[in-house]
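Possible regression after last week's pipeline update?

I re-ran a chain I had predicted before the update to compare outputs. Posting the input and the new output here so someone can diff against the archived version. Not blocking, just want to make sure nothing changed silently.
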Amino acid sequence: MTTYERVEKVLDKIRPYIQSDGGNIALVAVDESSGIVKVTLSGACGACPSSTATLKGGVERMIRQEIPEIKEVVAV
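New output (post-update):
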Protein backbone atom coordinates (compact mmCIF):
# COMPACT_ATOMS: atom_id res chain seq x y z
CA MET A 1 0.00 0.00 0.00
CA THR A 2 1.39 3.40 -0.97
CA THR A 3 1.70 6.29 1.47
CA TYR A 4 -1.02 8.11 -0.52
CA GLU A 5 -3.37 5.16 -0.01
CA ARG A 6 -2.50 4.96 3.68
CA VAL A 7 -3.28 8.68 4.15
CA GLU A 8 -6.55 8.30 2.23
CA LYS A 9 -7.50 5.42 4.54
CA VAL A 10 -6.98 7.65 7.61
CA LEU A 11 -8.99 10.44 5.98
CA ASP A 12 -11.80 7.97 5.36
CA LYS A 13 -12.03 7.54 9.15
CA ILE A 14 -12.04 11.31 9.76
CA ARG A 15 -14.28 12.38 6.88
CA PRO A 16 -17.66 11.42 8.49
CA TYR A 17 -16.97 13.75 11.44
CA ILE A 18 -16.08 16.64 9.17
CA GLN A 19 -19.11 15.95 6.98
CA SER A 20 -21.39 15.94 10.02
CA ASP A 21 -20.38 19.59 10.51
CA GLY A 22 -21.22 20.42 6.90
CA GLY A 23 -17.69 20.26 5.53
CA ASN A 24 -15.45 17.89 3.66
CA ILE A 25 -11.75 17.10 3.24
CA ALA A 26 -10.00 15.86 0.13
CA LEU A 27 -6.46 14.58 -0.31
CA VAL A 28 -4.55 16.58 -2.91
CA ALA A 29 -1.00 15.23 -2.68
CA VAL A 30 1.51 13.39 -0.54
CA ASP A 31 5.16 14.41 -0.82
CA GLU A 32 6.97 11.41 0.59
CA SER A 33 10.41 13.06 0.50
CA SER A 34 9.34 15.96 2.73
CA GLY A 35 6.59 14.14 4.64
CA ILE A 36 4.02 16.80 3.77
CA VAL A 37 0.39 15.99 3.03
CA LYS A 38 -1.72 18.54 1.15
CA VAL A 39 -5.48 18.59 1.60
CA THR A 40 -8.38 20.86 0.73
CA LEU A 41 -11.15 21.72 3.13
CA SER A 42 -14.50 22.55 1.57
CA GLY A 43 -18.07 23.32 2.52
CA ALA A 44 -18.49 24.71 6.00
CA CYS A 45 -14.85 23.86 6.77
CA GLY A 46 -13.53 25.98 3.91
CA ALA A 47 -14.47 29.26 5.59
CA CYS A 48 -14.62 28.19 9.22
CA PRO A 49 -12.28 30.07 11.59
CA SER A 50 -11.72 26.79 13.46
CA SER A 51 -10.53 24.93 10.36
CA THR A 52 -6.85 25.44 11.23
CA ALA A 53 -7.42 23.93 14.67
CA THR A 54 -9.31 21.03 13.11
CA LEU A 55 -6.56 20.50 10.57
CA LYS A 56 -3.64 20.62 13.00
CA GLY A 57 -5.25 19.29 16.17
CA GLY A 58 -7.36 16.58 14.60
CA VAL A 59 -6.44 15.62 11.06
CA GLU A 60 -2.66 16.07 11.32
CA ARG A 61 -2.51 14.37 14.70
CA MET A 62 -4.43 11.32 13.50
CA ILE A 63 -2.43 10.98 10.27
CA ARG A 64 0.92 11.32 12.09
CA GLN A 65 -0.21 8.81 14.72
CA GLU A 66 -0.90 6.16 12.07
CA ILE A 67 1.80 7.17 9.57
CA PRO A 68 4.83 8.44 11.54
CA GLU A 69 6.80 9.42 8.43
CA ILE A 70 4.29 12.21 7.76
CA LYS A 71 5.62 15.46 9.25
CA GLU A 72 2.90 17.98 8.45
CA VAL A 73 -0.56 18.40 6.94
CA VAL A 74 -1.28 21.65 5.12
CA ALA A 75 -4.42 23.06 3.52
CA VAL A 76 -4.11 24.24 -0.08
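Follow-up from reviewer: compared with the archived run. Strands lie at 23-31, 36-43, 72-75. Marking as no regression found.
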